[in-house]
Amino acid sequence: MDISEIEDAIQAKDARGNAPFNPRMMVALLLYAYCVGLPSSRKIEKATHEDVAFRVLTGGQHPDHTVISEFRRVHLEALARIYLQVLRLCQQAGLVKFGHVALDGTKVQANASKHKAMSYERMLKSDAQLKAEIDKLFKAVEQQDTAEDARFGTDNVGDELPTELQRRQTRLAKIKQAKAALEAKAAETRAAELAERSERAKEAAEQAPKEEKQRADRRAKKIDGQAKAATDKAIDKAEKRCIQAREQTAAVQMNADNSRAGQAAVRAAERSEDAAHRDLDKLKRIDVQASPNSAALLPEHRVPADKNGDPRPKAQRNFTDPDSRIMKSGGGYVQGYNCQAAVDDGHQIIVACDVSNQPPDVEYLEPLVEQIERNCGGLPKKFTADAGYWSESNAQYCEAKGLDAYIAVSRDKHSPAAASGVSSPASPRTSKDAMRAKLQTDEGRAIYRRRKAVVEPVFGQQKEARGFRRFLLRGTDKVRGEWSLICAGHNLLKIFRAREAQTV
Which of 157, 162, 182, 232 has its CA 20 to 30 A from that of 470? Predict the structure, then answer.
């Protein structure tokens, strides 16, 4: 494999200090760890002492867990791109048949608890409650100080705040920071919605009849002005969030000691400040006509906002991993991410993968099909997806691409291709009618029936066989890199099993 990107990054560092571990060994160590379901850096370090396979890979060396974790953190983007190299190996080995590709998603728990999420409505209530409690405690402290001054003299009074007051102040600061971030994201959502409306209004004005042209132009200009005002408001809120994050970092640095907990608090505050500046920079770079999510491959969650650009009461933010969202999974809910995979029927090779923090799947079909074409140099003969991906626009997109798609149009109990008591029209009137009729043919039933046997076992192998049920990293970008590593490990195992089968 070509790991020159990682090697060049290491060579560019200051040559002084201890010699680094061989990057090829570190890459092999991480890939093997993900293949056998052991992604934890501490468990990997332990395995280099106890597991023969790990000892062979490292040549008897024992990288510390901090070294392993830092190597993955620094080179995560380069490690994620290894997935594409592994896919190329699968193609060269003849494991990608490209006769039938199935697309599906699975919810994976984030490195955060759903109990650490708070709604905007509750933030407002907690903010007022904690302020009242802190004021009450301050008054109590002042009364106690006055009494002690009278009893012991002014020179014998300590200047440390009570532990109870420190705890409430810390929580209030966290809530304020999360509240500011939620307000900034909601303003960004409103700006994006108005920008999209402005674009549609301008298109409508261009196509309007002559007698309605002036009215349509005025409406387009009005919406365009609203979009620009909303964008300015979003930037203003993002800037205020940056100021608040900078002040919080300074306060934490001033009060933190040299203990591990103190330094961890400083690093957490610095990460929050960096995230605030990244969001502001991204917002400033985006044109008013573009969506703030256009930089991402998959659409991402938008904080629900009202017409003033403020968060709706039920809008939530997680204190541990702000990018993660509460999603329905099985019979319950998880704080997690929506992981997508397109799988080839031949040997269950993952030919496209990505992650988003938006639960619905319908907006993911088009970008995943584009990625399949980009990764493999073409489109499969047959393509299947469940009802979560159905929409008229997706059906029209597949038809325009010349892709023979079989997408369930509803979530029927047994099979979307099963008859639902209503006969299909002789001449389908809509894309939905045409797709339903296509799925009710013998060929359509047979092809769609293969979908769950192609893609769903892949998630079972990852979650059950290799025990991957929770991400180690936090944030959409890092989670996307980790998911690419997991999918690369899956494909490597398929190569190994295929070679093993050939030698039997």
Answer: 182
Domain 96-113+321-503 CATH class label: alpha beta
In the block, which residue shows the tokens 């002040």?
Answer: 247
Please give the backbone phi and psi of residue 317, each rounded to the nearest 5 degrees, phi first. Answer: -145, 135
Determine contact, residues 168/133, Cβ cutoff 8 Å. yes
Q: How far apart are CA 71 and CA 66, in angstroms?
A: 8
Helices (H) then strands (E): counts for the chain: 18, 8
Q: CB neighbours of 364 closer than 8 A, spacing ≥ 6?
A: 103, 105, 298, 299, 338, 340, 354, 356, 389
Two tokens at 383?
Answer: 């393509």
- The per-residue b/e assignment along 250-266, b for 16 or more CB within 10 angstroms, e otherwise, is eebeeebeeeeeeeebe
User: Which of these, 176, 194, 179, 273, lies nearest to 232 by C-alpha position?
Assistant: 194
DSSP conformation class of 504: -
- In Å, how far are 173, 246, 264, 378 from 276, measured between CA atoms? 15, 9, 19, 39
Per-residue pLDDT in tens (0 to 9) along the chain, 504 residues: 888 889 888 888 877 777 789 999 999 999 999 999 999 999 999 999 999 999 999 999 999 999 999 999 999 999 999 999 999 999 988 999 999 999 999 999 999 888 877 776 766 776 666 667 666 666 666 666 666 555 555 554 455 555 555 555 666 666 666 667 767 777 777 777 777 778 877 878 787 787 777 787 888 788 778 778 878 887 888 888 888 788 878 877 777 777 776 777 777 778 778 878 877 777 776 543 333 333 346 888 777 777 777 777 777 888 788 888 888 887 788 899 999 999 999 999 999 999 998 888 999 999 999 999 999 989 999 999 999 999 999 999 999 999 999 999 987 655 454 444 444 555 567 889 999 999 999 999 999 999 999 999 999 999 999 989 999 998 888 999 999 999 999 999 999 988 877 765
Q: Which residue has the tokens 């996307």?
A: 480
pTM of the full predicted structure? 0.75
Domain boundaries, the chain: 4-80, 96-113+321-503, 115-318
In degrees, rounded to 5, the angle at the alpha carbon of residue 455 between the alpha carbons of residues 450 and 461 is 125
Give the Å distances, CA to CA, from 461 to 68, 184, 464, 466, 487: 25, 40, 6, 6, 11
Give the ranges where 348-407 is alpha helix by DSSP (H).
365-376, 392-401
Q: At what angle do helices 23-35 and 41-50 cross, to 10 degrees?
A: 100
Closest by Cα among 353, 330, 351 to 341: 353
The answer to whether the CB of 465 falls within 8 A of the CB of 457 is: no
